[in-house]
Every structure is written in structure tokens, then in C-alpha cells.
Task: structure prediction
Amino acid sequence: MTDATPASWPTDSPSSGTARSVTLTDLLRVPMHRLRLVVAVALVGLLAALGYVLLVPAAVSASAVVAVRPVVTDAFTPSGAGADRAVNMNVESGLATGTQVVQRLADAVDGEPREIRNALEVEVPTGGQILRFTYQARDAQRAVQGANLAAQAYLDVRRTMYEQQRAEMLRSYDASITKVAAQQTAVQKRVSSAKGTAAGDAALAELSGINNQLTQLNSSRTEIAAVDVNPGWITQTAERALATSAGHRPLYLVAGLLGGALIGVVLAYAWESTDRRVRSVSDGRDATGLPLLGTVRRPAFRGSPRAVDADIRYVAMAVAERVRQPTRVALVTAREDATALTAGLAVALAADGREVFVADDSGRSERLRAAVLADRGRLPIDPSRPPVPKPRPAGAPSPAGATAEGPAPRRPSPHPPGARPSTDPDATLTLPRVASAPENGRPASAEEVTVGVGSVRFGTWRQGADHGLVLFNAPPAESDERGVAVARQGSAVVVVERDRTRQSDLRRLVERLRAAGVTPLGFVLTRNGRA
Result:
């Protein structure tokens, strides 16, 4: 047995020193190959959003606007350049959603403070002194009532706070005025008792200072009493005509679908990181370190397998270039079934005049025969089919050796030998001979299929020991070691099924072949489906 001289085992590192750049197609390849997972998660998100829309009642929101004003002693005094900063709107927003406002609103609508706080929302426009109260409820009437009550409750709470501050300041001024008035009375008595003396002059000077202090206190108290403690006004009340549905319900469906699709893409990448599959020729070359013998693509339309058949013939030419008869070629896989590819290679090799023996020890001979017969019928040119003779035109000369004067041809008897029952008891019965002439002139057997000018035979590995070219349809290497054992006696072709073969299984298969001393011819990248 003379096989091709095995070449040195290629290195595990890629042939090129530079790493392959990741393109947008590489990023989209994972979600596309995990499309079922992405679609399933997206549908779950859509169903969740649909359930929320159908089960959760729609909320109605109403808004009321309050203009906040600072506390001033004179409302007719023109405001300065910093009037928009006279009120701290962050503090006012906190008071608007504070406990006092929420409690008053809960007492008014007879609800829970937690529900009121979740339904109430206060917005503060940037650079303005406006509070927008938005209240959500199940119907428009409750929403309008809640928004107006919240705005009024805020104004009442703020006015009460200002009034308490003013009352405290007035109480302090009254106490000071009472104290100074008592001092004034005491000094007046001293002045009356010490007129014309030095002590009387000093008392008069002290009385003058007390009078000035009392005047200032009375003036300040008057200003405090004149302060307008109105915290603002409701410039826009909530009305039922202005109430709108809270949010756009159809947007929930879009958000659920997009959110589910995004989660599905993330899960697809997570799954791909733990279950890496061979997606391209580069992945197969990186995982095996072997040369590519060819790719077998799936046809665009299942009814037109010509593209796949042509790819198999190219692979057969690559295999025939690397082997010399007699040889043994084992088609090994990690977990997949290479029956269709084995049958296609057998047909392509036999069509050029080779005697191919297809060996299988896993009970797949009938499948191999059916696949070979189906592939044989799709050969572009089948020399095994004899041409149909053309009819001779009238008046054409007879073939050589036949003359017009010859005897008339004998007509066949309507009763062939053995058709009539003989009356002679010693007569023998003559049986007609059934001749089976093969298409190419060779005697045919039950286990042989004629393909082109060659043939394909089927059997077990032991039955193919005397044949020149044997293709062994090896079982998956993960569960059976016979493929690697047969490859030790000849060569091996690693069959990689795109989108199904795991890279870890493929690396383990190549390591096993290398450990067994087998140098594979290369690998074939197929597409899940036919081959």
C-alpha cells in the first residue's frame, strides 16, 4: 500500500502572525445563529408587556401649576436682577412632596400616604419659579381632584409656615417694646424727680435714647406686620378636559419587544461564550490547524442541489490529489454523521473510473446505498448510460454481410420452447436463460453500484481489505474510536459541520488523531442539512 507521503504536522498557531480583525459581520453572526433564542426572549418580553397593558388598568393624569413668589414687605417694589433666585426651588419641591402635604391629601381623598406619594409627582422647570403638580389615578375625576388638592395643600402648608414665622417675630418685637416701654417709664420718673440737676440732665439724655429705640422697634414691628405671607397662586387648575392617559400604552409593547430582543442578544453571546461552534472557515482552520479541502454549501433552494453536488466534486478532486492507490481514507467527525458526504465523495471519485469501496461498521450501509443512487442520478454527464441508436432512414443499405438475396428472416414462434405442454413423458423442460448484462460490460453483483465508468461497492471494513480505494464512513469519534483506528492505516479527512460542530470537540478530535500518529489530509466544512 503506497499512500501519499505524510507532511509534517502543522503548528497549532495560525499561519499568519497577525490576528484577524473582528468585523461587524462577526458581531452579527452570533445573534443570527442564535436567532431562535433571541426571538423566544423577545416574544417573552412582548407577552410580558402585553400582559401589563391588559391586566394593569390605565392611569389618568392631571396637572396643576403653582407660581411660587418670595415673601416681600412691599408687593409693589420692583424686583431686582436676582428675582429668580429669591426662592430656593429645590426646597419648595421638597416641601411640595413632604409629609404634611401628602398627609393632608391622604385625609382629603381617604387614601394611604404611600399610594398618594407614588401617585404625586412635582416638576420644577429649570430657571423658573413654577411647580407643576401631576397626579395619577384610575379615573379623570380622582386625578383632577388629587392635583388641585395637592397644589392647594402646598400653598396652605407654606402659608401656615410663613404665618408662624411672622407671629414669632411679632411676639419677639412686642416683648422688646414692652421691656423698653418699662424702661422709658422708669427714666421719666427719674427726670421728674431730678429737674435742674446734673442727674436730671443725664436722665433726659437716657430718655431720649430710649425713645429712639422704642421708635425703631415700633417701625420694625410695623414692617413685619405688613409682610405679605402669600406663598404663591395656582395659575392653572386641573380640569377633566385636560386630563390625559398616563404614558402611551403602545409604547410599552415596543419597549417590551426591544427589551426582550436586547436580553436575548446578551443571552446569545453568553451562550456562545460557553458553547463555541464552528461558524466559518477561519474558525475551523484555527481549531484544527489543517488545510481546507473544500466547503460544501447548502443550496439556496432545497429542490436544486446542484451547488452542493459541485462542491462535493471539488472536495473529491482535492482528496484524489493527495492520495495514491491503494489507500484507505476515513471520514472522521466529532459528534456528527458524515454519511451524506461519504456517499457524495464515493460517487464523485467513481465517476472518473475508480473502483471505490465504501466501508461502514455502524449499520448505515442501506443509507449509503440510497444516497449513492440518488447522487448518481444527478451526475451532469453519466457515461454509463448507453446512447440510444438512431433509426436508419428508408432505402439505406443493409449492414455488411446481409444481401437482398438472402433468406427471409424467420418470424419468432408465438409459442416459445416450453410454452406448450409436451405429450412425451421423457421430454425435458427447457428454461429460458436470464441474462444480466451490466451497462459497462462488467459482471455486476448485488453489492455493487455502477457510477460512470467506475463502481461503488459496499460492505464492512474487513470486506474492503483487497480493494484499492476504501472510504470508511467512521462513527462519531466522541463515542467510537474505530475511525481513528482506521485512519492509522491510511489517511483521514476531518468533517466539520458548520454551526453544529463544537470547537472544543473539534480540537479534542485533532489532538486524538495527532496522538495516534495520524496526519489528516485536511478538513471539509459542510453546512447542516444535506451534508
DSSP finds 14 helices and 13 strands in the chain. The chain has a mean pLDDT of 78.
